[in-house]
Amino acid sequence: SQELEQSPQSLIVQEGKNLTINCTSSKTLYGLYWYKQKYGEGLIFLMMLQKGGEEKSHEKITAKLDEKKQQSSLHITASQPSHAGIYLCGAASDSNYQLIWGAGTKLIIKP
Amino acid sequence: DGGITQSPKYLFRKEGQNVTLSCEQNLNHDAMYWYRQDPGQGLRLIYYSQIVNDFQKGDIAEGYSVSREKKESFPLTVTSAQKNPTAFYLCASSIDQGASYNEQFFGPGTRLTVL
């Protein structure tokens, strides 16, 4: 079965610094979703990637899917307190309905 | 405003009791999902429904039941057969028009605690 591994599990970053979160799959990714979650709340959609080599940006967050479609990275530039939270990646399998999820990366921004 | 609502936000239950979590959406989405989230783990799929009056088991359906009598509603019942029900429960929905890899929209979640 397909598994998603996120790294690191947690990250403490000084405000203003850049950071990267990775999501690695044991199998080819057919669609990769990035979501953000504040503790105790629902998930907010950030971006979806489908094509190998694809890169998308939203404000200071950039996500990439590698050419082999087995790894995605999420990069935040000049981090701010509003970026704090849990970042989760979800991958589409051959089923349209069932996403497989990584365990999440907890991001803390130090002022 | 369109969205997904879950109620209640916090729920306490005594052992041996069944409890029902509500999920309503006004996005006109065909597909709806229930996930369970435990600390340090990814989301795990409990049940999903692609259409009214039809639903399928996910990875951890044991001890749970659902119904889909209306397009807008997908309630989840946590039964006394669920051995470890204390968790954060998330409901989601997505368009199901035959297109692949549709974004899932999430509700705010319900935190269930068994006393």
Word description of this protein:
The complex is a heterodimer of chains A (111) and B (115). Chain A is mostly beta strands. Chain A has strands at 4-7, 10-14, 19-25, 32-37, 43-49, 55-58, 61-65, 71-76, 85-92, 99-101, 105-110. In chain A, strands 2, 4, 5, 9, 10 and 11 form a six-stranded mixed β-sheet that branches. In chain A, β9 (85-92) and β10 form a beta hairpin. Chain A is globular. Helices cover 0% and strands 48% of the residues of chain B. In chain B, the strands form two sheets. In chain B, strands 2, 4, 5, 6, 9, 10 and 11 form a seven-stranded mixed β-sheet that branches. Chain A binds chain B through residues 4, 9, 30-31, 33, 35, 40-45, 48, 50, 88, 90, 92, 96-104, and chain B through 4, 6, 31, 33, 40-45, 48, 50, 56, 58, 88, 90, 92, 96, 100-109, 111.
Give the topology, please.
The complex is a heterodimer of chains A (111) and B (115).
Chain A: E1 4-7, E2 10-14, E3 19-25, E4 32-37, E5 43-49, E6 55-58, E7 61-65, E8 71-76, E9 85-92, E10 99-101, E11 105-110
Chain B: E1 4-7, E2 10-13, E3 19-25, E4 31-37, E5 44-51, E6 54-57, E7 64-66, E8 76-78, E9 87-94, E10 105-106, E11 110-114
Parallel strand pairs in B: 2-11
Antiparallel strand pairs in B: 1-3, 3-8, 4-5, 4-9, 5-6, 7-8, 9-10, 9-11
